[in-house]
Design a protein that fits this description.
The protein is an all-alpha fold and 188 residues long. Helix content is 62%, strand content 0%. α1 packs antiparallel against α6 and α7 packs antiparallel against α8. The longest helix is centred in the first third of the chain and has 22 residues.
């Protein structure tokens, strides 16, 4: 497939994804229940209600220039409490996929997420020290760990984080699940 054809097909896929998201929330009546249910709304530059209106109006650039959709913690409260039963959390996931496809996804968040999944795949649980060490290495910033030092010290003093050393890779109990998900993703 030529580069031009690939760009055209990716453009159509992005348009289709945005159309599907808009279809999911077209019945939104702007009641604000999603915003009232959201534990992260205080940190967002647009409330979830405002973001859904922006989606309805096709204001894609404004959405991706905000932090609103990237701060969603996928708690599903908005979806559970929506009086119209709209799939809001799934629509947020769609926005995140679209951001990745357009290349506007927050790189730090994507790297942290991938590092988190790799750690869980390896051990079946999060090994905090290894997670953070791998994340800092992936970010390639020698000063980034310094900004986390006070928080890390507090967590260690309270016994919330163990200073255990990382182990060598041994396939964990979840390794088969991760392989199956990769296989299913490759089919779609």
């Amino acid at each position: 497939m030529s580069e031009e054809t690939r760009e055209l097909s990716e453009g159509h896929a992005e348009e289709d994804l945005m159309a599907a998201i808009r279809e999911n929330i077209k019945a939104c009546m702007q009641c604000g229940t999603c915003t009232g249910s959201c534990g992260s709304a205080y940190a967002m530059d647009f409330t979830p209600r405002q973001m859904w209106r922006m989606v309805q109006l096709g204001m894609v650039d404004e959405i991706f220039n905000s932090r609103t959709f990237s701060l969603c913690s996928s708690c599903y409260y908005c979806t559970l409490r929506c009086p119209r039963g709209l799939p809001l959390t799934e629509s947020i996931h769609g926005l995140k996929q679209l951001a990745v496809a357009k290349g506007v996804a927050e790189k730090k968040g994507a790297r942290f997420y991938q590092t988190f999944l790799d750690t869980v795949r390896r051990y079946g649980r999060v090994r905090e020290m290894e997670l953070m060490a791998r994340y800092f290495i992936a970010m390639k910033s020698p000063v980034l760990p310094l900004s986390f030092t006070p928080l890390g010290m507090k967590l260690m003093m309270k016994g919330k984080v163990s200073p255990e050393m990382p182990q060598f890779f041994r396939p964990g109990k979840l390794d088969g699940i991760f392989r199956k998900v990769k296989e299913l993703e490759a089919r779609s």
